[in-house]
Design a protein that fits this description.
Elements: H1 12-16, H2 22-25, H3 30-34, H4 36-42, H5 70-75, E1 80-85, H6 93-102, E2 105-108, H7 114-117, H8 127-138, E3 142-149, H9 158-163, H10 167-184, E4 189-196, H11 215-220, H12 224-235, E5 240-245, H13 253-271, E6 278-281, E7 284-286, H14 293-305, E8 309-318, H15 326-346, E9 350-355, H16 392-403, H17 408-416
Bound molecules: (3S,4R)-3-hydroxy-2-oxopiperidin-4-yl beta-D-xylopyranoside.
(3S,4R)-3-hydroxy-2-oxopiperidin-4-yl beta-D-xylopyranoside binds at residues 109-110, 196, 282, 314, 364.
Length: 417
């Protein structure tokens, strides 16, 4: 087995799911992988694991969401509602019930990131991702994959290896990583975030092309983005390749500049024949910045006009600018949600609306130094409260989905690719 002792740990399920193109993908490749590039990139701890039993993702069960759920309201118009799930939460019965009741789609918060799958060199851990996937399938939910290429969530051992790799070695590593992750989950993921947060923000914009300085850019050059999409397409052609980006939603000049960069880059990628099918707006919306509905509408329409699908991938509402009083905060947050979702749900290219978790205690905003509230109160960023009750924000989502125009036929076509 080409992988033994290297990135692939020898799980038989993973081998079973290998696409036929794998040998070609690996670089005609097998011998090179076992030679210099592979051994360099596998690290000193590389070792083989005994073959494990196939993971067995299980059949797709009947939908578990209820007729009064967010997913039911979204589905009427061809949209899907879903949320991010931290894999450890699936141990909590009330959480499982809430997610099964409300969602038609799930995405892992960390379980499919490299820091979890390749925490140690030479050993792959698909367990947390597999568990989430099995839960989703049992409940008739689809899954997004998050994320293949990102400057964060790199295991400690990867950054130094990339730093001392030439382009050929770095490419071999990228191929093996995408081959491992997207290969293992092949056929089960609707869309992969192929690249995440590739544009530099604010003062960090140093390059004319606006790209963020990352270990991937340093080792592979700006072509790493196109390359990653091409590799995913070889490994799992059924998964839509998504460029997931943050800070493109609100009405400030630096975000407008990012929107322009996104559109120019998307046009360039399509002209180069890059197999990208969707653009993802993370949508970590902040109460400190305005939303201009017309600008947002135009941006979404331009992406849709390129023939791409759109996903809202990590929606939440940072309520820092609103007062401590809960009712006042909820009014502020629901107003933002209404203004945002009215535009988003009206755009026929938007396929999925995914919140970053579903219940307030889990929001990452409370842990983020720039996003936590100055009064120290927990953010009210998500549709369900700490007791899993539906908040005013849930009702704002429900109304936006219910009132949205039906774009089911267009969305079905886009989903099929
Ligand atoms: C966050 C997770 O929610 C946290 O649990 C983790 O510790 C750090 O990453 N943008 C992204 C997500 O693309 O992957 C991030 O998720 C949140 C910001």
């Amino acid at each position: 087995m080409l992988y033994m002792g290297c990135l692939r740990g020898g799980s038989t399920s993973a081998v079973r799911l290998m696409p036929p193109t794998r040998r070609a993908l690996l670089g005609g490749a097998g011998t090179a992988l076992l030679g210099g590039a592979a051994s360099t990139l596998c690290g000193p701890g590389a070792r083989a694991r005994p073959a494990a039993k196939p993971a067995g993702f299980g059949p797709v069960g009947p939908p578990a969401w209820t007729s009064d759920s967010l997913q039911a309201a979204a589905a009427r118009t061809g949209l899907t509602y879903g949320c991010e799930v931290p894999h450890y939460r699936l141990d909590m019965a009330a959480y499982r019930r809430a997610v099964a009741r409300e969602c038609g789609m799930l995405v892992c918060g960390t379980a499919m990131k490299m820091e979890v799958v390749l925490a140690q060199p030479g050993i792959e851990d698909f367990g947390p991702g597999d568990a989430t996937l099995r839960f989703a399938r049992a409940n008739g939910q689809r899954m997004r994959g998050h994320t293949l290429v990102w400057h964060n969530a790199l295991p400690d051992w990867v950054q130094p290896l990339l730093a001392r790799s030439g382009p050929a070695q770095a490419e071999a590593f990228l191929r093996r990583w995408i081959g491992a992750a997207a290969g293992h989950w092949r056929g089960t993921i609707e869309a992969w975030d192929v690249v995440n947060e590739v544009l530099a923000i604010g003062d960090a914009v140093q390059r004319p092309d606006g790209l963020r300085e990352t270990p991937w850019l340093a080792s592979l050059g700006p072509g790493y983005i196109d390359l990653a999409f091409r590799i995913l397409h070889e490994v799992d052609p059924g998964a839509a390749g998504t460029w997931n980006e943050d800070a493109v939603e609100q009405d400030v000049p630096w975000m407008e500049a990012r929107r322009t960069r996104v559109l120019r880059r998307l046009e360039g990628m399509l002209a180069r024949g890059v197999p990208i099918r969707r653009f993802g707006l993370q949508s970590h919306l902040t109460s400190t910045l305005p939303i201009d509905q017309e600008r947002l509408r135009r941006f979404l329409a331009e992406i849709g006009g390129l023939g791409l699908g759109i996903e809202i991938t990590e929606l939440d509402f940072d309520d820092r600018a609103f007062p401590s009083d809960i009712a006042a905060r909820d009014r502020g947050v629901t107003d933002m949600a209404r203004r945002y979702l009215d535009v988003v749900c009206a755009e026929k290219a938007v396929l999925n609306v995914v919140t970053w978790d579903i219940y307030d205690p889990d929001t990452w905003l409370n842990d983020h130094p720039n996003r936590k509230r100055p009064d120290g109160l927990p953010q009210r960023a998500l549709p369900l409260d700490a007791g899993f009750a539906r908040k005013p924000l849930w009702h704002a989502f429900h109304k936006a989905f219910r009132d949205a125009p039906d774009h089911g036929a267009h969305r079905d076509r886009l989903r099929r690719g």
